[in-house]
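[#protein-structures] MJ: dropping RNA polymerase sigma-70 factor (Sigma-E family) here for a structure pass
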Amino acid sequence: MDQSFDEFVHSHQQALVRYATLLSGGQGEAEDLVQEVLVRVYPRWETLDGSRYAYVRRAVTNEFLSWRRRWSTRHIRSVPEVPESASVELGWDEPDERLGRELRKLPRQQRAAVVLRYYEDLTDAEIASLLGCREATVRAHVSRGLAALRSVLGTPERVQRGVRGRGHE
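AK: finished. structure tokens for RNA polymerase sigma-70 factor (Sigma-E family):
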């Protein structure tokens, strides 16, 4: 299906922002992240082959993982950080604020691997392609990330149920 850029943004922006929120830990940063990626993708929209959603999701992931483009170094924050008790709507049926806080504490690669696995339902091969690493590295990131979450949150079923979201629509 050959969607126009406007149709793509209309049908996928919310899912991309939810995904970016899980990665970045804040809705405002997620919206900025997605907006930045969409602005850069727009000029070459017609030349993109394959799944445009996958391409944009990868661009969001790369932007999040990029140390050179970290939002904290690009923007002056005129207000204090959002308190840990603040809640961000992630599109879950029953958002677990504690899970969100603990997910934000994971190293960036682990957080990305866990979110891609349990929120976007990607395979090890797909995650490895997105993160630019081997499948074994993806399994290690997911395993370590889940172990860290389990150590503070409890059983794996609770952790996996909390991270699992609606993904793209």
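MJ: nice. The mean pLDDT is 78.
AK: one more thing. The chain has one domain: 5-163.
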